[in-house]
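Worked problem 6 (solution included).
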Amino acid sequence: MSKAKNQGIQGMNEARLFLHELAFAKRWKESIANRPYWERDYLLRMMPSLRRLTRSGKIRSPHARELNGTALELALLRGMAVERNPGRWHRDQKKFCGNRKHLDLLLHALGAPAHTSEWNAWRAAHPTLRPDLRGVNLWGLNLQSVSLRGARLDGAALAGASSRASNFHRASFIKANLSGADFSYADMTRADLRHALLQDAIMSGADLSGANMRNAILTGCVLNRASLYGAKLNGALVWGTSVWDVQYDESTKQKGLLIGWDDLDPIDVAMGIEEKGKLRAPDQSLLVDDLRVAHFMSLVRENEYLADVFDAASSKMVLLLGRFTGEQANVLEALRKALLQYGYATVVFDFQKPKTRDLIETVAVLAGLAKFIIADLTEPRSTPLESQLTIPQIAIPWVPIIRANDEPFSMFTALQRKYEWVLPTVRYRSVRELLRQIKTKVVRRAEELSEKLRAMKDGRVRHG
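Solution. The predicted structure is:
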């Protein structure tokens, strides 16, 4: 018989004997006074029903089966508690400089096999008290079952810890080691993360609104879908940070984000890249003021791959021009959704132009990255100017569309005759009719012309 099976049988027998004695004890509550908090809570819930089985002076079948079932559950919970007991592998607390009673209470709670937590009960009884856990070593532990809202965790070691959907509102992590920790969907609003090491930390969907992340080390950190409204990231090192669909606004502070421009070794960062309380920049670094720009500039740094980036973008991007209000806005939105079915990512030019580029320059940059352009000429505003200044300069397919009873602006027919990359105008009476034509008269024609133009630019086909 295996050792594990022997231990399981022994644990079951011990639990059954323990419960049998409690069931007949006159002062059974006193008998469990020294048991762990989670076990006392479990027995307080289970014992009244077991005690009812002893009214006849002995436990009869099928009551014995009920006792055995409870004993099995208790034995399993005790086994889980042994496995979870962080005291077995976190005796090293040499850097701890907080409140020792708080630490002992937390470690006992982390060893509980269920969500029943002496720590959480203590937090509920003292809602205004901030747990002092500065310098604590919680490396690799599961912290999801304990409330660390407002806790002082400065200088703590939480590397590899699991804290998904946990509450760290107003918690302090100054100079803490959080590398590789999982903070997905955690509430970290107004948390203090100054100079914290968040290398390879996962913070997908985390709420970091109002968090102070100045000079934090975010190398390889995942911030996808995180909320950064009002967060302060000034001076953070963001080499390799993933920022898909990050949410922020003008209240987010991002001045002086650091990108390691020279070869940056994340191990050197983890070993301690700080000096005198301030983040030491890599030997060659670039400062930017936007997380998404940091990601783009990292591609620019790898300039040998820029051609691949441009080719990939120009094979998937379609620029939509037209009116972005009223009924025509619905037309562009319908086109945007329909083009997804053909594998195209659309850019609808309805956003505020950059401060460093005028309207035409902005359209020219986007057009240069697009595979083709769809321009709605119905009741145009800026489209006539955009087309007259960009069609002669950029040889990519233009697909003009217009409502059936309207006519293009006066100069457009001349542009259509002069430049072969301006396709025949597609007329539509309704959005439904336009979508019926999108495959044959828009996508297919634009793709065929795009291939012809590419061959011509490569010298494989002569012009005309």
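Discussion: The longest strand covers residues 398-403.
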